[in-house]
Amino acid sequence: MKTILITGGGRGIGAACARLAAQRGYAVAINYQSNRAAADAVAAEIRAAGGRAITIAADVSDETAVERMFARVDEEFGHLDALVNNAGIVDRAARVEDMTAARIDRMMRVNVTGAFLCAREAVRRMSKARGGQGGAIVNISSKAALLGSPNSYVDYAASKAAVETLTIGLAAETARDGIRVNALRPGLIDTEIHAVMGIPDRVARMGPSIPMGRAGTPEEVAQGVLWLLSDEAAYVTGTFLDVTGGR
């Protein structure tokens, strides 16, 4: 059975990826930072449908916690085939002139350092040069990386741009080790992130401006993620899939 680790897998896009991965036959490790109830609920749903799932608490910005998380995957599954670097944070909408160093540092530690650390541990297990069987990594970026998100969250956009550079470099670095690394850019997706930003009506307000006339769903993003992880994308690495409704 193939195995997958999804960071930030208890809610939104991560939870949708966990459910779909289980439907596709993966044993699923669902990472969460603090909301154990949400992660446990997704895992219980997968197990009720006959799948295999575990939950693991870890702050992805903490190197020791990340190492412990991957050790738990080793213990439970014995190997790792896929990683979805989905864990990330956003803050309330603000202009750069009003951002504190603490806010920017936290954004980069979770969104960038966390993605690096998880990718590092995945490569150590997947790389054929290290005795692994190969594998695939999908980093969740954002269309914000290209748009900059002025007047809202330039810090978040910058963190996702860094994730995209990680994707390009790591893909080239590990291609001959049997690892594919790609990124997916969601656009306006109907998740809790908008309430966290302090703009709970953002989806309703902005949805009609999307060429397709609506926001996307976490399940539509998950479809793209699972395709990038699949053998159908066997010759795809170092690239980006936009799931944005045309924007």
Automatic annotation (TrEMBL):
Residues 2-178 form the Ketoreductase domain. InterPro entries: KR_dom, NAD(P)-bd_dom_sf, Sc_DH/Rdtase_CS, SDR_fam. Transmembrane segments: none annotated. SUPFAM superfamilies: NAD(P)-binding Rossmann-fold domains. Gene3D superfamilies: NAD(P)-binding Rossmann-like Domain. GO terms for molecular function: glucose 1-dehydrogenase [NAD(P)+] activity. Pfam families: adh_short_C2. The keyword rRNA processing does not apply. Keywords: Oxidoreductase. It is an enzyme of class 1 (oxidoreductase). Its EC number is 1.1.1.47. Belongs to the short-chain dehydrogenases/reductases (SDR) family. NCBIfam families: PRK07231.1 (NF005559). This is Glucose 1-dehydrogenase. The lineage of its organism: Bacteria, Pseudomonadati, Pseudomonadota, Betaproteobacteria, Burkholderiales.
